[in-house]
# Entry
Amino acid sequence: MPWFFSIPEFLKKRACRYLLQHYMGQFLAEKISLEDLTVDLYSGTGTITNVDINVEAINEVLVGSSAPVRVLSGYIGRVTVSVPWTALLKDSCKVEISGLALSIVPYIAPSAAADEQGGQWLCAHAG
# Structure
């Protein structure tokens, strides 16, 4: 869907950055800069490439959900946000992630490992 051309390009670029930063920022290793963002006026998309992941933030979510893994490192090849400028009040924005690579290790919480192994902890620590 083409962009609504009466909105200046710099505002569209800032809006794309805001959406990406708002919804994904805590999981990215660095804040998104306007220079890192590529905007395609015809398709209404903003894209960032080669993004490192904030491992600590992802591991906090994993701890909160009692997941049996921890992330050691991570990388996203491309993140694209699509903004329906001509129908902002009717259509949703979309975020697409491609080229996701994660290095993970199994993790058993110390208390669970102690219970399962009769006092012996089996723990793989991330980072």
